[in-house]
Batch of 2 targets.
Target 1
Amino acid sequence: MESIGIIVAFWALAVTTVGAALGVLVSRNLLHAIFFLITSFLGMAGLFITLSADFIAAAQVLIYAGAISVLLVFAMMLTPLASRDNANSLYLAPGALAGLGLAAIVGFVAVDTPWAELAGSTLAERSFPDTVRTIGAQLIGRYVLAFELASVLLLFALIGAVVLVHDRAAERGAAAAAEEAGTGPREEAT
Amino acid sequence: MTTAPASPPRRPEAPPALATPMARQIREAPTLRGMLTRAPAPVKVAGALAGLLFFAANAAIGYLVIDGRLDGHWYDFRDLGVAVGELRVWLDDRGLGPWLSYWVTALIGAVGILSFVGGVLLIGTWIERRLLAKFQIRRGPNRVGPFGLLQPLADAIKLVQKEVLIPRGADRILFYLPPVLVFIPAMLAWGPVPWAPTMSYLDINVGLVYVIAISSLSVLAIFIAGWSSNNHYALLGAMRTVAMMISYEIPVSISLLSVALFTGSLKLSAIVGWQSDHTMWLGLIMPFALFTFFFSSTAEINRTPNDIAEAESEIVAGFHTEYSGMKAGLFLAVELGNALLIGALAATFFLGGYTFFGLEQWIPPYLILAVKISAVYFLFVWLRGTLPRFRLDQLMGYAWKFLIPLSIAFMGVSAVEASILARVDLPGLLLIVLVVNAALTVVFVRLWARVVGYEAPRDEVTMPALTTSVGGLRAAQRLRGGAS
């Protein structure tokens, strides 16, 4: 059924993705871990392409490999002490539990899906359908509630970040110091 | 000036001829005019014959084109995609399986794109240096080969000879990767660019998203380069690149989003097709989106006036400070290649792509696209020769306070207009939209500039806040004698 090329591509991409994900775990250098993570994201994008999900693949590269990784790099550069050490985490047990739970969910879906029935139907026509239009129509049609909730969540995150960064105490301290100095900038200049 | 004082204004006397070999070489350097006038008679006759032959060949080809004898045949040189398609059919008929035609056509497209970009990289450095020299009233490289044309080759040979150093304390593996990594997105993003109706290597449905996604990857290579060098200047350059990328990807994406809204497709050939159908450039309909794309792209590819990531007057050479030899050369080559890529994308999205109001019927469309790419590239060189560099905070503020709000506003405007266009079918509606958008651009920019723009410089001097709060000012007063 499948041509040899797609099988080779799947295995190469799968090995890349999983290997890079393992590299995230074992590398001691935090920056190396981030670049392993990016490699893993790119491998995932390749896997999406082998599934004919072109938009998801492009979005994966755009959002994960292009934006989230830059965010990670940015966060790492703002915390210089952490940048050279991917130290042991205190959250080993909760992390393991969360990973196990996730693996259980994915495994359940993988086992539960009747692959034999689906294999012929989706892969029979080897063409890239216009997935973007369908995804857009579904997002503002059937799944509009989830879409709006995600938007509101992101807006909250944005506002929350602004509130967190907006340090009122420091501002008051600076104002008090300026007052204590007796000469605000304006008075000094005149 | 003692001789002949009475003559009317005349050319100043030539300076006395120097006898050094270099002066003689400069005096005898070949110019186009000198080569034409001083050529021996047989060469002139041969040149005239060759010119006549050229015109005759062009007339013959023109006759073939007008007569329609090329349409749809594999030798239709106006659209090389037809030939590849025919080759594909022919290979499939041989019965060797679909993989053969797939691999062969993929290889042809890849070799075509790579050879085009490579060739342009070779000639492009010469063009850029000569143009910059013209802008700065110099001569530019003119010593190696005719008109200095072999200068890029000489540069490449020199760079290859040089030792590639690795600084002590550098992250060795990561230090090796970036010059190679930075090439990958620069080459991949050429894929979806349509050169002719069927001449497109990767005409995928999500071409626009693909282009944005691929071009967002180059920042990672640049960041790796800066971080692994173990150099403060390199790290500063990398930090600036990342900050700039975060800022300027948003206006690029938003401006391209309005393109998608108008054309109703993310496919690059469909975007060009829309502009061809409506005989209208999207850049004329949405001038602000074109400006945003162009300006933000200069920031993304590190070109003047936005090349703060490698500002040589501030941080040596930015992220590639520690790279030497051909590795530095690769970074410079990618910079040039990215400028051409932005030219191709700007031409495709905003300037009609391979079409030029019907001219693409007669002239090969890929030549039209090449001319448009060269025009945008010329604009880049012009900017580089003219404008000084922005300051880091100015550049960030420009993105966040000016480009992003206005881009969002114009995206709303284009959404409304696109829905009107989809529902109403009037012959001159697009022209009305054009005029409305031009007016809106002026109004919005003026209004918004009044809100966020810089005020006129004030007479009173403001003291830096840190100095007053930390106490430096008081110490200074005490030193001055306590009198305030």
Target 2
Amino acid sequence: MTPRTVLVVDYGMGNVASVSNALRRAGSTPVVSADPQMAVHADGFVLPGVGAFGKAIQNLRRSGMAEALTHEVMVRRKPILGICLGMQLLGLTSEEAGHHQGLGWIDARVKALSPSLGFRVPHMGWNDVSAQAHGPLFDAAAGSFYFAHSFVLECDAELVAATFDYGDRHVAAIQRGQVFGTQFHPERSADAGLALIRRFVNQLEAPHAL
Amino acid sequence: MLSERLVATVVVRQGWVVQSFAFERYLPVGHPEVAVEFLAQWNVDEIVLLDISATPDDRGPDFSLVERVARRCFVPLTVGGGVRHLGDVHDLTHAGADKVSVNSAALRTPALLEEGASHYGRQCMVAAIDIRGEGASASSWTCSGRVDTGVHPAVWAQAAERSGAGEVLLTSIPRNGSKRGYDLATLRQVAAAVEVPVIINGGASEPAHFAAGLAAGASAVAAGNYFHFTEHSVLTTRAALLGASRRMRAAAPGYDPVTVDAAGRVGRVADFTFDDRN
């Protein structure tokens, strides 16, 4: 089988190397690029996330990548995995350092995690994730994944694929059709994370020539 | 439930991983790629790669080293040493770092933490604070332990948090390599002063030291020397902490159930014989 080509969207801020390393380990061919032209040829996308919301969405719009991705994902129905900030960018709005409009593909809003007794912010480290087992991304109902974030996504229960507990129940993963997102970092979650990335890669259709 | 983290620090000096003793004497260990690959496969929760010769040699981070190391690392990777400006943060995250640790530069360029947090989010920025003295008399040192700032680490940590640090890595210089356990007095002061997680480092040499660090308010407990030269140390420490009812990620395939003695050695499994007499 020809390896699937995954475009790792480079908007100047993500941990693109970590994500590419994990995608390669999962048997796909990652291509890191900021060029919207590359989106046409990719079999699927990963929107990585180490960054601040405002700058990220600004960079995505300026480069034309936001528009290209919207076409490839929402019209041509190619799979995408948003990681951490990359998942948050799929929503409508964010209150991270101001008020920002996201890509708006899913009905979701990004809110700040507020510190409380025993719950430091950022939420940093390995936390248990409860998932609907045997969904496309999760092969088990529970697993431990690595989180590093100060903001959380809020959305309707029907979009929620997995949750985690940190003072409250929060969204750990979402799914709407072939649009996937994780608040945690599968590329940094050892074997459990690599298994999830492999399951995402398996979602990709027959390869397009790049 | 959020787990408490077991962190391995990999100290690199002129391209080699070293064991460090009080930031003064060093014992070479080997190649960074090999150390990181082993630690990641042993399922440590996080790796901190510190290039301690960068700032004293007046150079920036070794990006190609980070690239090579990141390729072998599937747990979170924090990189520090020689970070001078926002461009370094960008290049480090591009090379494979998930978080960037800043020490001397936070003093020289106070805006760095703020700029880093506004571009990469505060979860990406780690304030590394090296200290001498303990409790009320503790002071923060920069430039790999060469320059005394006279600022108490709790005060520094608060300032760093305000600027945009998402985490504090607190290292006791005199305890580094001493095997005496962590500086718990200063840890308590720093953990109480900030909302962000605190990683304690320096001095751990047996499972009880790690448990004491967590009990004193650390979100993560780190060690360097101990993990390099104590066989099975990541697995046995994790098992010992689970045994001490700490909230650890269960990730010790083949070591369950396991007993660990006070020195961190795996206990002997009871002998059994096949008995065909009945």
